[in-house]
């Protein structure tokens, strides 16, 4: 035990010296052999209130837990507690690399020169490589970031939502822009334009001037605001108009409707279907229409007696039928959670690509719609009323 205590003291001292001389890059403990679900531990240098510290990431199978050790004594106690739980460790510094392997109860240590030309980040919160960086001008004008390019604390969720949306749309648009020389995108219910400007950013950065985006928003003050931002930033392929979704009459290759309330989502989907849009992307909001008219089957009375469960059942039923109606009209659909619920509760997205459906597929969709309506005593989904030509 005395030999082990001496080794942990020397190891802690070595790590701490590399830390305070700004030479420490990382320390990794691997091959865990304990009884917890811990997989590995990752140590990195951080600066907390202008003082040095070690941040430890306890990497479990399903989560990461972080803890900071601010003194050499705390680091010693930590290493003493955990060192024998692992079979290997690696210390990487700017000019040295130390590898340790536990064999027959003793640590075998190998040290070598390893000069690395690398700047080390001591920030407590490491900066992620976002598709849309916080320095983008439109984020400042929309109140998401400060003039210095820092995300405003109250806008962190919005910033993450913007970037997740940008990732999804970059992927969805990539194939379409290869097939068409120009693409017209209509964003219905564009609101303050957070996601519309994000879409313009990735479109102009990745697809050039061949993509034009139109934002449709009922509230004129928001349209004026967004067009003012467009003018300030000198954007040529983006404009906003104030009119109801159902009144839009222009061409569209892509229809987008994000968080359009209740039946506004149905109006948007109907527009995309009628205009034969190649791509339809919607993130539905509240689902009042179906909930008002659905009848809970007797077999589900007990399980749906709680309001929250009934509400979620109505959401599921609404979006399930929307997806099936899209399939009935020649679209291949996928429904998924596009961002964690901790950032926004409105996190379900329906993506539909124009793709010819077989007669068998159409009949299956038709039968399933009929079954769902019958099961929940629903006479008609609102989207059916907007598309009277479809035969159920």
Percentage of residues in helical conformation? 25-40%
Provide the number of structural domains: 2
| CATH top level assignment of the largest domain | Alpha Beta
Q: Number of helical segments?
A: 11
Runs in which pLDDT lies below 50 for 5 or more consecutive residues are 341-345
CATH superfamily of the largest domain: Vaccinia Virus protein VP39
Shape: elongated
Number of strands: 14
- Biggest sheet, spatial arrangement of strands: 4-3-2-1-5-6-7
Provide mean pLDDT, rounded.
86
**What structural category do the secondary elements indicate?**
alpha/beta
- N-C termini distance: 78 Å
Q: What name is given to the CATH topology of the largest domain? A: Rossmann fold
Strand content: 25-35%
Radius of gyration: 28 Å
Could you give a short account of the major beta sheet?
A: 7 strands, antiparallel
Any overview of this molecule?
- By secondary structure, the protein is α/β, with parallel strands linked by helices.
- The protein folds into two domains: 2-113, no CATH class; 137-386, Vaccinia Virus protein VP39 (Rossmann fold), CATH 3.40.50.150.
- Helix content is 38%, strand content 26%.
- The chain is built from eleven helices and 14 strands.
- The strands form two sheets. Strands 4-3-2-1-5-6-7 form a seven-stranded antiparallel β-sheet, covered by helices on one side. A seven-stranded mixed β-sheet has the order 10-9-8-11-12-14-13, with helices on both faces.
- α7 links the parallel β11 and β12 (279-283).
- α9 (307-328) packs antiparallel against α10 (359-375).
- The longest helix is centred in the middle third of the chain and has 24 residues, at 156-179.
- The chain is elongated and about 85 Å long.
- The relative contact order is 0.07.
């Amino acid at each position: 035990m005395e030999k082990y205590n001496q080794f942990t003291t020397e190891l802690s001292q070595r790590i701490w010296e590399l830390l305070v001389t700004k030479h420490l890059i990382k320390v990794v403990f691997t091959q865990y052999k304990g009884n917890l679900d811990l997989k590995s531990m990752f140590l990195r240098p951080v600066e907390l209130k202008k003082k040095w510290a070690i941040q430890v990431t306890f990497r479990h199978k399903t989560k990461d837990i972080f803890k900071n050790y601010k003194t050499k004594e705390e680091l010693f106690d930590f290493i003493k507690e955990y060192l024998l739980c692992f079979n290997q460790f690696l210390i990487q510094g700017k000019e040295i690399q130390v590898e340790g392997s536990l064999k027959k109860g003793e640590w075998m240590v190998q040290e070598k020169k390893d000069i690395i030309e690398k700047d080390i980040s001591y920030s407590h919160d490491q900066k992620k490589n976002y598709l849309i960086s916080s320095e983008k001008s439109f984020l400042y004008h929309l109140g998401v970031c400060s003039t210095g390019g820092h995300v405003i604390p109250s806008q962190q969720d919005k910033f993450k939502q913007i970037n997740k949306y940008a990732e999804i749309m970059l992927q969805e648009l990539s194939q379409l822009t290869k097939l068409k020389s120009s693409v017209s995108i209509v964003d219905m219910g564009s609101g303050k334009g957070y996601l519309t400007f994000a879409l313009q950013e990735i479109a102009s950065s990745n697809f050039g001037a061949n993509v034009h985006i139109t934002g449709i928003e009922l509230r004129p003050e928001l349209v004026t605001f967004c067009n003012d931002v467009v003018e300030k930033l000198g954007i040529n392929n983006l404009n906003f108009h104030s009119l109801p979704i159902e009144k839009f009459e222009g061409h569209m290759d892509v229809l987008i409707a994000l968080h359009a309330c209740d039946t506004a989502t149905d109006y948007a989907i109907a527009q995309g279907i009628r205009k034969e849009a190649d791509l339809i992307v919607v993130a539905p909001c509240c689902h009042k229409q179906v909930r008002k008219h659905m009848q809970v089957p007797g077999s589900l009375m007990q399980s749906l007696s709680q309001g929250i469960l009934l509400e979620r059942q109505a959401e599921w039923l609404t979006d399930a039928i929307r997806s099936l109606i899209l399939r009935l009209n020649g679209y291949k659909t996928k429904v998924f959670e596009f961002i964690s619920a901790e950032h926004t509760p409105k996190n379900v997205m329906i993506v539909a690509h124009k793709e010819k459906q077989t007669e068998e597929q159409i009949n299956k969709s038709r039968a399933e719609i009929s079954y769902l309506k019958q099961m929940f005593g629903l006479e008609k989904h609102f989207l059916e009323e907007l598309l009277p030509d479809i035969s159920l």
